C-alpha cells in the first residue's frame, strides 16, 4: 500500500507532497494521519520553511467523498479526518516555520483550506480554486472560515463560499487568494526559489513577524505596538541580530543560524 504523502527534509527546508493522484489527493483518514505526522516530523527537525504541493493533475480536490460514502458512521468519519488535520494546522500556525502552498489544477474544499492556511501561495496558471463544501452538503473545515474573510474580506468571502463559482488563477491573484501566478512548468522551480529565500531569513524575526501579522486581528493598536516592541527586544538580544548588524556594516550577506 503506497503512502498518501511524501515528506522531504533538506536542512532548513521541508516539502510535503500529497501523493494520491488517482484520487486527486483527496484527504482520507490515512492522509490526515500522515499529514499530522509529517508536520510534527518537519517541525521537530527544525525546518524554517515548509512547502505543500500535490502530485498528479491536482493540488487537492478536498475530502475523500468515496471514504464518506463507505463509512457506516459519517460523523465519526468526519472526526477521524478533521481532528488530525486541525491538530497539524494548529501546530503549523503556532510555529515559527513559514509555509508556502504550491497550487496547480483543482484546489477545492479542504485543498483550498490548506492553501489559505499557508503563509504564502504560488499558483500555476492551471490552478482553479473552489470553496466546494456546500456542493456536498457540508459547511467548511480546516480553518477556511477563519482565513478566507481575513484574506479577501467578509463580503467577498461570502460570495466565494455561497455563490460557488470556481476562481481561476488570474482572478485568485486579483482577489489576493494567491501571491503570484506562474506557468505550470515553472511552479516547482519558483516554489523552491522562494522557499530558499525565506529559509535565508532570520528565523526568530520572520517567525515573530508571522505571529504579529496574524495576531493583529485580535489586538487593538496599543496592544499591537506593545507586542511589536517586545518582539523586537527579544530579537535584538539574539546572535542573529548581531550577525545582521555585522553583515550590514561589512557589506556582505548575513548568515543566520537561528540563535
Task: Report on the architecture of this protein.
This protein has helices at 29-44, 65-70, 74-94, 110-117, 144-152, 154-163, 169-174, 187-199, 203-215, 221-236, 239-250, and strands at residues 5-10, 13-18, 49-54, 98-103, 106-108, 120-124, 128-130, 167-168, 180-182. It is globular, with a radius of gyration of 19 Å. The mean pLDDT is 96. The protein contains eleven helices and nine strands. It has 259 residues and is an alpha/beta fold. Strands 1-2-3-4-6-9 form a six-stranded mixed β-sheet, with helices on both faces. A three-stranded mixed β-sheet has the order 5-7-8.
The helix/strand class is alpha/beta
* Strand content range: 15-25%
Query: Mind telling me the C-alpha Rg?
Result: 19 Å
- Span between N and C termini? 42 Å
Poorly predicted runs of 5 or more residues: none
Helix percent band: 40-55%
Put simply, the count of helices is 11
Amino acid at each position: 500500500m503506497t503512502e498518501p504523502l511524501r515528506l522531504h527534509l533538506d536542512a532548513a527546508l521541508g516539502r510535503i507532497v500529497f501523493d494520491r493522484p488517482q484520487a486527486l489527493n483527496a484527504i482520507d483518514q490515512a492522509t490526515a494521519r500522515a499529514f499530522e505526522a509529517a508536520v510534527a516530523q518537519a517541525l521537530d527537525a527544525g525546518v524554517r520553511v515548509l512547502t505543500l504541493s500535490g502530485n498528479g493533475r491536482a493540488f487537492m480536490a478536498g475530502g475523500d467523498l468515496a471514504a464518506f460514502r463507505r463509512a457506516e458512521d459519517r460523523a465519526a468519519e468526519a472526526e477521524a479526518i478533521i481532528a488530525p488535520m486541525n491538530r497539524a494546522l494548529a501546530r503549523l500556525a503556532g510555529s515559527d516555520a513559514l509555509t508556502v502552498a504550491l497550487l496547480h489544477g483543482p484546489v477545492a474544499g479542504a485543498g483550498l483550506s490548506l492553501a489559505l492556511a499557508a503563509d504564502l501561495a504560488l499558483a500555476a496558471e492551471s490552478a482553479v480554486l473552489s470553496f466546494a463544501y456546500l456542493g456536498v452538503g457540508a459547511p467548511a473545515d480546516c480553518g477556511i472560515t477563519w482565513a478566507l474573510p481575513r484574506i479577501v474580506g467578509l463580503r467577498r468571502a461570502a460570495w466565494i463560499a455561497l455563490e460557488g463559482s470556481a476562481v481561476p488563477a488570474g482572478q485568485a491573484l486579483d482577489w489576493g487568494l494567491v501571491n503570484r501566478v506562474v506557468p505550470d512548468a515553472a511552479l516547482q522551480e519558483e516554489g523552491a526559489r522562494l522557499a530558499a529565500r525565506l529559509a535565508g531569513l532570520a528565523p526568530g524575526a520572520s517567525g515573530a513577524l508571522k505571529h504579529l501579522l496574524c495576531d493583529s486581528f485580535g489586538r487593538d493598536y496599543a496592544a499591537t505596538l506593545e507586542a511589536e516592541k517586545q518582539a523586537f527586544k527579544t530579537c535584538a538580544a539574539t546572535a542573529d541580530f548581531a550577525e545582521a548588524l555585522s553583515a550590514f556594516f561589512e557589506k556582505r550577506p548575513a548568515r543566520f543560524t537561528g540563535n
